[in-house]
Amino acid sequence: MLRMYRDTLSLLGPVLPVVSFLGRLPTAMCQLGSLLLVAETSGSLTTAGLAGGALAAGQTVAGPVIGRLADRRGQRGVVLAASLANAVAVAALVVAALGHAATGWLVLLGALAGATVPQVGPLARTRSVALARRSGADDRRVGALLSFEGTLDEVSFVLGPALVGLAAALAHPAAALVLAAVLLATCGTAFALHPSAGVAEARGGAGTTRTGAAQRGRLPRSAYALRVTMVLQGAMFGASQAGITALTEKLGAPAQAGLVYAAMGVMSAAVGLSMAAVPARIGLATRWRVATGALVVLSVPLLFVDSLVGLYVVVVVLGAAYAPHLITVFGLTERTVPASRLAESMAFLTSGVVGGQALALALSGRLAEGYGAPAAFAVAVAAALLCVPLSWAPVHQKPARTS
Hints:
The structure is a single chain. The chain has helices at 2-12, 16-42, 45-73, 75-98, 103-115, 120-134, 139-170, 173-193, 196-204, 210-216, 221-250, 256-274, 284-299, 308-336, 342-371, 373-391. It folds into two domains: 12-207, MFS general substrate transporter like domains (Growth Hormone, Chain: A, Up-down Bundle); 219-397, Up-down Bundle (Growth Hormone, Chain: A). It is globular and about 55 Å long. The protein is mainly α. Mean pLDDT is 88; it is low at 207-215.
């Protein structure tokens, strides 16, 4: 496993992982950052919720569109334009919030900030796969790359909110969003212009005619099952977040909510890295079924937890099932969709998580207010149960490549 990760870092080089990580960090900062900023400047949780919801909706809808444009036109121009536009939109949201703009303007700017997210995470996966395939890497090494990219995502989604919370405590939520805008303008630009963009374009056939792309780019039915399961994964995140928040408030320790969620992310990242050690004879379809089963088994204890220690234990153990599911779904997507639609498909998976999380957070938050934390956790368990039949859908993969 260690050798595989040494090979992974050697393949990607020293610059690409750094700029891709810092380029995706603002995405993890802006959701919570916008909520805290608007709540503080407007004094209204409703207004903050509307602005944050608009940001999530913009990212959910526009993410696959940006991925599709990257497939057709290449990553350089698309990511560069999106990064700069996103930096401007985030900065404008900060100025509007500090200037006590009307709710309508805050919602509009939130939607623009979401719609212009440059999708660095999904497109970094596409580049990594292209680099690996160009070097003749087998499917196991591609799996190690996807595990590495998944870990970068997990770390960013733990570190991003932590930075926002630190900025809010020491200065002002606006400071976190200003930092996000700077990272977008600098690291987003660096990621856009990195030479690896050309490798992804060559493999995906960017710049080909629309007719030719359509002929080679039809999605198999299994791709839609993979997309739905990622929406459900996002629903588990949102429902878990609502339940954790409700239970920690009930136990008189609301400040622990972020730490509990971060502990889950750390466990998920650690297990994600270990996925490279799974024997190649255990195929991706089998891994998907095992991962969905683990989601169900490990989420059920959420319904019965009633102490802070118990919450930490149950949530951290559940985190061990998240990364295997996410990484396997990304791996199956790479093995099933045409190269000419890989960026779009990767972006759709990420946007599905964001959309599912936002919808479940809104629903389970209301349930938690009326019926307590178990009602929110029940949404997470239901989402896990719905993943199980999807994992048994027929998956037609490309021929395996072995070393």
